[in-house]
Amino acid sequence: MTNAPTDLALLRYQVISAYISLDPRRGGRTAVLQQLANKTWTLPDGRQVKFAAETLRGWVRLYRTGGLAALEDAPRARRGVQVLADDQIELVCRLKREQPSRSVERVIEVAEELELAPKGLLKRSTVHRVLQAHGLSARKRAETTVSDLDRFEAVASNDLWQSDMMSGPWLPDPERPGKQKRPWLHAFIDDHSRLVLAGRFAFNGDLPTLELVFREALRRHGAPRRVYYDNGGPYRAKHMAQAVAVIGAHTPVHTEAYRPEGHGKIEAFNRYCRAAFVDEVRASSITTLDELNRAFRAWVDLKYNRRVHGETGETPWERWRAGAHNIQAVDEGKMRAAFLFRATRTTDKTGLFKLSGQRFQTSASLARKKVEVRYDPEDLTLVEVWFNSAFQERVGPFEVQEHRRAQTLTPQEPTEEATSDYLRHLVGQHAPAVGEDSVAKALAEREAMDDGVVELLRGAVHPDVFDEAVVREFLLRFGPFEPDVVAEPLRDLVALHGRDQHLSPLLTALKKTLEVA
Q1: How far is 301 from 430, CA to CA, in rounded Å?
Q2: What confidence category does residue 433 fall into, taking pLDDT thresholds of 50, 70 and 90?
Q3: Containing domain of residue 351, as a range?
Q4: What letter does residue 407 receive in the DSSP assignment?
Q5: Does residue 142 fall inside a structural domain?
Q6: Euclidean distance between CA atoms 211 and 214, whole angstroms
Q7: Dihedrals φ, ψ of 500, to 5°?
Q8: pTM of structure
């Protein structure tokens, strides 16, 4: 069995042996070295090479000071590993084993953000070599398509939104203890910036969930000019097309059947989300849908939207914000109207009707009539009652239903204690997202309008008959009304019937006057 370093040392000695045996005097040494440098030599592996005169001079010096052993190459240090202590190498391997889909960059990110390793210590090349040495560097081959796809990009922020559904991680089923259930993610991204506008996991990938996510995207980021959807049933629902029309966007465009790559940007996000978020859920303590959505929101706002995109060279948030001056906000009242579900109900002789398992009661004037009910499926505290295409009133549940707390599930015992609950760390750092104050603003505007009407009535009627609680209940049920619009009809009614008339008849007459106007 040959020893490669020894063979190489013997070759080097063979090259310089003529010089050593001649032992030329000063003045002739350079010429001898140059003659040897002009010769061709065969390496142990068969390659033909020449050596520079200065290289030969160095070999002569090494041989004269250390003999044949000095002509061998020194053994190389361990590449990449020598800069890390054994416990740091074990940390890197453990982070990878906990979630094999973690990339080198995410292993470093998790270790640094959870303060498991000092920042700057773990270099990409170092971590890669450690994982490679321990057989942990294999990566799943990405799926490809053989279909030709045209590349395109929207010209500005909110010019085009894309949306799709994606399967999520398995979670304990809240309705069947001991069983698992997979939620689905609805998400919207901006085509130009790749910004994730909104997203939510739900156990049912149905229309209400999709509309809630769409509404959140509109509230936080304004109205899109166009929307580009998947072919799924919720996306093709008539109610979804109605919502798009009410906010003023173009008719939705749908992907070609069996060719989801057509909206590749949301597909690319889904792939990244599976690797960078969904796989992290398996290394976390998340067991409920609420926890999953909080973690997803934190990950999107703190990581994905702030990460430089490989295609654009900018973070999605910076690129979207650069075009924010062209973005049109959606009026809260218009948006609410766009997403209200509609159902037809016939009231009984007392004005009662049922909706989603709850009873509601209208005014006596609507008893035994077919009415249209417009409602938010997520909030049934007040529903709108319409008759003959005209708004009549808002009513709440007739009976207060007993509140049932969600069953608390005991988290399953992990087989091995998790080192890196990275998503819980992100949730702890997450602050309310930018742009979510639009709802608070709308509520403040409504409150200001109601306050204005209350003050008008306070000054118009006698103090003995004024009751603020009655006025506010009236406004909650039939409002809102602009104070400027109320002022003149109110003066006329007070002038006609006096300041000491009963408040309820005055409010009823005021409502009828405003309806006629």
Answers
A1: 8
A2: very low
A3: 340-395
A4: P
A5: no
A6: 5
A7: -105, 15
A8: 0.54
